[in-house]
Design brief:
Layout (H helix, E strand, L loop, with lengths): L3 E4 L2 E4 L38 E5 L6 H6 L18 H4 L14 H12 L15 H5 L6 E6 L2 E6 L4 E6 L16 E7 L2 E7 L19 E8 L4 E9 L8 E9 L11 H4 L9
Parallel strand pairs: 6-7
Antiparallel strand pairs: 1-2, 3-4, 3-11, 4-5, 5-6, 7-8, 8-9, 9-10, 10-11
Length: 279
């Protein structure tokens, strides 16, 4: 069961935490609960197996109130609590003071224009894909990793979006066809999966506030599964057309054991956009 709601320009589907699909091979405590602190599982090649359903860890208590204050009131919707979202979902430049943010003037102006569109004119309300950065850190919509030799698939609950990450040794294409989620290749550095992506169109936002990017965007993700139930994820955004230097955000992904992603169909929600008030 899912409940569709509006949040910061996004149609949300609250994940059904009450699903119970026991997963074979899951380490368990004496009382039968999944042991999230157990050792990191390994694939046949000895590398960490990242497979599973993952969800971005909620923000520490009080963090978003401290950063955004009364502005959080604009994001409150029934059935959801924006205080728990990653701070980067609201603002991918949250680690910077406004005067130190590495954003070019043209990108800052686009951000202001996009922020004014939050609501019926937001890309995701029109059922357009979220893009890598927003989908990776969407605290209320998990993603599923399926790891195989030579290829890793990422299935995002939000938008029913999928990605392919090639780990067969190929390089990024010199001139990839622009797409919503780009073209991704990965390699291992020790126990960390490093994924480089390029070939994006310029139609997605980096966060819920509307920070833009250009077709020059490159994203590097670093996945490190430190135990059975926790994975460190860092994302480095490099877009010289929009930002003065690359910058990195870091989040923790938490395993949702004995669960799965659910089907999300946006077109029914999209019909409601005509009834939304513009902010």
């Amino acid at each position: 069961m899912k409940i569709g709601i509006l949040f910061a320009g996004t149609v949300l589907c609250v994940h059904a935490q009450w699903l119970n699909h026991p997963t074979p091979g899951t380490p368990r405590t004496r009382d039968g609960k999944p042991d999230l602190s157990a050792k990191t599982p390994r694939a046949a090649n000895g590398k960490p197996d990242l497979s599973g359903v993952w969800q971005t860890e909620f923000a520490p208590a009080g963090e978003n109130e401290r950063l955004y204050g009364s502005a959080l009131g604009a994001f409150v919707v029934p059935g959801d609590d924006p205080r728990t979202f990653s701070k980067y979902f609201f603002n991918i430049l949250a680690d910077f003071k406004p005067e130190d943010a590495p954003i070019r003037p043209a990108a800052a102006e686009l951000t202001r224009q996009n922020a004014a569109r939050i609501g019926p004119d937001s890309p995701s309300i029109q059922c357009l894909p979220h893009g890598i950065t927003r989908a990776d850190i969407f605290a209320y919509a998990p993603f599923k990793i399926i790891q195989t030799p030579g290829l890793i698939a990422m299935l995002y609950e939000v938008d029913n979006t999928h990605r392919q990450i090639y780990t067969d040794g190929r390089k990024l294409p010199a001139d990839p066809q622009p797409s919503w989620l780009g073209y991704s290749v990965g390699h291992w550095e020790g126990d960390t999966l490093v994924v480089d992506s390029a070939g994006f169109n310029d139609k997605t936002w980096l966060d819920g506030r509307g920070h833009p990017h250009s077709e020059e965007l490159r994203v590097q993700e670093r996945f490190h599964r430190r135990d059975f139930g926790h994975m460190d994820l860092s994302l480095t955004i490099d877009d010289p057309k929009m930002y003065t230097k690359p910058f990195t955000i870091k989040v923790t992904e938490v395993l949702l054991p004995d669960s799965d992603i659910l089907e999300t169909v946006c077109n029914e929600n999209e019909k409601d956009r005509v009834h939304m008030e513009k902010r």
